[in-house]
Amino acid sequence: MKLTTIGVRELRDGATQVLRSVREEGARYVVTVHGKPAAVLIPVPEGAEAMAEEAWEEEWQRELEALRREIDAGWISEKSAVELVAEGRR
Question: The pTM is what?
């Protein structure tokens, strides 16, 4: 099925109809902002909700690991963050 271009204002004004056509007819849209592509609306395949949740959790884990490495690289204290937090709770 071909992609239909829709402006963000047009999407806002007709969101219910657009989403219905995506869900029921398999329509596909390129959403534009100021005439430039910004997003694509496509139907979600059966079972994709669970896959999307799993992908989100994996991405979250990658972001947390990247943050941990960044903090580790700049850590100056002889004590760990866990030790410092424990001290602050006493």
Answer: 0.53
CB-based contact 5:30 (threshold 8 Å):
yes
Q: What mean pLDDT is predicted for residues 43-64? A: 82
DSSP 18-74: HHHHHHHH--EEEEEETTEEEEEE-PPPTTHHHHHHHHHHHHHHHHHHHHHHHHHHH
By CB neighbour count within 10 A (0-12 exposed, 13-18 middle, 19+ buried), where does 69 fall?
Answer: exposed
| pLDDT band, residue 90 (cuts 50/70/90) | low
CATH of 3-41, one of 3.40.50.10950, 3.40.1620.10, 3.40.50.2300, 3.30.70.580: 3.40.1620.10
